[in-house]
Amino acid sequence: MTYSNYGDMLLEMAKQVYGEPTYTSNNIVRFKQSKGLAVNLQDGTWFDFTENSGGGVSDFISQHFPNEKKTEVFKKFGGSDFLNG
Asked: Does residue 44 sit in helix, strand or coil?
């Protein structure tokens, strides 16, 4: 499946890592208990309040799929053959 924006891609990545969302409101989807992790669907960004870290798709891949090539994870979740930027 190819996604039209990085927010949708991040949502699918977060679902694989954390399971189903615990809260959804407008363009924000949250995972985990307490503060947890938030994915901003509009901006294509994420932030983990517990770990005090966040960023875009590339940062999510680095943190949550550290033993896999970024390009392969990107393609697996509907991205093109390479990361753009």
From this structure: coil
